[in-house]
Design brief:
EC 7.1.1.9; Four Helix Bundle (Hemerythrin (Met), subunit A); transmembrane helix; Cyt_c/ubiquinol_Oxase_su3; cytochrome-c oxidase
């Protein structure tokens, strides 16, 4: 009997290729920061003093935790388990429950960024203040938009799980693809966080 050739999932491959282009996009944003630091060290030092590092650290931990809950949801999807198994508590959660928790954590992160923007504007650092402020808001703002896109994707995957009668590998693949994107957004933020808040 002829052996079957297992081909990679085209959706997953397409997502990985697309994320590669996103890496180049964020690399350009990082280049702005390193250029600013080398050409205007005084402005860099003055403006980084306004950043709330403890708050940003907590917000970062929340996003990292959301990546953990996202992966737990993927494990459940790979077991073809969309919903909670009875009498097993949170350890028996299905993909839907884990993804709802991920959505909540992601929404808290975005809300935290909005609050931080409001605080910086109140301290005299609006986007029009100088080139550092422009770089800060553009870089973190684009990341926040990517996080928001991920939240919408979670809602679509959760909605699809509710809509189908049988949760199959097709639905599981959708959740895995969304997790690729979410982990990417998480890793980008960790690098952004280190560059923005700790590179003095």
């Amino acid at each position: 009997m002829a052996s079957t050739i297992k081909r990679p999932n085209p959706v997953a491959v397409g997502t990985i290729v697309w994320l590669g282009s996103e890496v180049m996009f964020f690399a350009g944003l990082f280049a702005i920061y390193f250029t600013l630091r080398s050409t205007s060290p005084e402005m860099w030092a003055e403006n980084t003093e306004l950043l709330n590092v403890p708050f940003a650290t907590v917000n970062t931990i929340i996003l990292v935790l959301s990546s953990v809950t996202c992966q737990m949801g993927v494990f459940a999807a790979e077991r073809l388990q969309p919903y909670t198994l009875k009498k097993r508590g949170w350890l028996g959660w299905g993909m839907v429950e884990w993804f709802w928790l991920t959505f909540i954590l992601g929404a808290i992160f975005v809300s935290g960024q909005v609050w931080e923007y409001a605080q910086l504007v109140a301290e005299g650092l609006p986007i029009s203040a100088n080139s550092y402020a422009s770089a800060f808001y553009i870089t973190t703002g684009f990341h926040a938009l990517h996080v928001t896109g991920g939240l919408i994707a979670f809602l679509l995957v959760i909605g699809r799980a509710y809509a189908v009668k049988n949760f199959t590998h097709k639905e599981a693949t959708s959740s895995i693809v969304v997790s690729y994107y979410w982990h990417f957004v998480d890793v980008v933020w960790i690098v952004l966080f280190l560059v923005i808040y700790f590179l003095k």
